[in-house]
Write a structure and sequence with these properties.
The protein is of the alpha/beta class. The protein has helices spanning about 20-30, 40-50, 70-75, 90-100, 115-135; strands spanning about 10-15, 35-40, 55-60, 85, 105-110, 140-145, 145-150. About 45% of the residues lie in helices and about 20% in strands. The strands form 2 sheets. It has a 5-stranded parallel β-sheet with strand order 2-1-3-4-5, sandwiched between helices. The protein has a two-stranded antiparallel ribbon with strand order 6-7. A hairpin with a 2-residue loop joins strand 6 and strand 7. Helix 2 (about 40-50) packs parallel to helix 3. The protein is globular, with a radius of gyration of 18 Å.
Length: about 160
């Protein structure tokens, strides 16, 4: 099996069982330059996240097969990219539970497209910053006879 060619656009997996909403959000995000994959149930979502390793997951809570809370809990064992929960559940307890299970953000429906896009961009930007910091932290910086381990900050 040949490796997949590198993606030029960020890949977002949308986990949403409402077909019309999934199409609307998918079309909007595609028009903004993102590659979109859609999963319509929780069981398939876990497998697809594991196989595809998207750059970000937009995750509904109320899903057939396995709810979004269970999906989040399960994929956080192997998935390190951002998860944005998008749901009709407006109770504070649901929001807190989602965040405690590993979601990076939580937005309620009805979703406003530009606000959703801003949250997605913010999460992706934050992740890129964290990655570049971790790349630097694994380096040794040298100048002349002086050398510093960037991670431990020792000479």
């Amino acid at each position: 099996m040949q490796p997949s060619p590198p993606r030029l656009n960020k890949h977002i997996m949308l986990v949403e069982d409402d077909d019309s909403l999934a199409v609307w959000i998918g079309d909007y995000l595609t028009s903004q330059g993102y590659d979109i994959t859609v999963a319509s149930n929780g069981i398939a979502a876990v497998e697809m996240i594991r196989d595809d390793n998207p750059d970000l997951v937009v995750l509904d809570i109320t899903l057939p097969g396995k709810d979004g809370f269970d999906v989040c809990r399960e994929v956080r064992q192997f998935y390190r990219h951002p998860i944005l929960m998008m749901t009709a559940r407006i109770e504070e307890t649901d929001e807190v539970l989602g965040l405690e299970l590993g979601a990076d953000d939580y937005v309620t429906k009805p979703v406003r497209p530009r606000a959703l896009l801003a949250r997605i961009k913010g999460l992706l930007k934050r992740e890129n910053t964290e990655v570049s910091h971790s790349e630097v932290s694994n380096q040794r910086i040298s100048h002349g006879q002086f050398s510093i381990d960037a991670e431990s900050r020792t000479t």
